[in-house]
Structures are given as C-alpha cells and as structure tokens.
Specification:
118 residues, mainly beta, four-stranded antiparallel β-sheet, 0% helix, globular
Length: 118
C-alpha cells in the first residue's frame, strides 16, 4: 500500500523557516519524480515544486529562491525547506506523485498545515 505522510508544518512568523518532510512507503521511491503542492484557504490546489529522481528541482515563481525541494532516496523521504516565509504561503502542503492531468495526482498525502503570521 502506497503511503505518503507529511510532517513539519506549524505556525511561524513572516520571515521564518520551516522544513517539511514526506515519509513514503509502499513503492519504489527512487524511480519516481515527486511533487509538492499546496492548497490555501478557499482556493484550489497549487503546484509548488517538482523534484526529479536525480534531485533536480523546479519551482513556481511564487516560491523560487525561497523554497528548496530535495530528496533522500536512501530513506525514501522528500523534503521542502521553506525560508523567508510570507503570509501568502499559508496553506496545507501535500507531497504527491504520478500526476494524471491538471492538479490530479494518483497519490497524495494527507497534508500538513503551514500558517505564516504577519
């Protein structure tokens, strides 16, 4: 059974940092590109970052230069280091993989809440 479990969210002041983790099991983590997506209150899912199997990453312009996505294939864990956080980063953050179309993924975790206060 595929499992994706996010952790590391919380409440932080603007300008602060958080590191999210996504612990995975039930599939061969190392052969899949992984993604981080988020959902702000009252809004739809928004793509944040893709992390390729070799560790290369791409980001939405909204977080480029502030967030860093990386992975540890030895421990099957995905990470998102978030620095210089802004109130508009407030959202539930999810890890996911196997994008089918649009923002629909075959697998997505239960999410972790990130709240940034001004």
């Amino acid at each position: 059974e595929v499992q994706l479990v996010e952790s590391g969210g919380g409440l932080v002041h603007a300008g602060g940092s958080l590191r999210l983790s996504c612990t995975t099991s039930g599939f061969t983590f190392s052969i899949y590109p992984m993604s981080w997506v988020r959902q702000a209150p009252g809004k739809g899912l928004e793509w944040v970052s893709d992390i390729n199997i070799d560790g290369g990453a791409s980001y939405t312009d909204l977080v480029k230069g502030r967030f860093t996505g990386f992975r540890d294939n030895a421990t099957n864990t995905l990470y998102l280091q978030m620095d210089s956080l802004r109130p508009e980063d407030t959202a539930v953050y999810y890890c996911a993989f196997l994008r089918r179309y649009g923002m629909v993924y075959e697998y997505r975790g239960q999410g972790t809440q990130v709240t940034v206060s001004s």
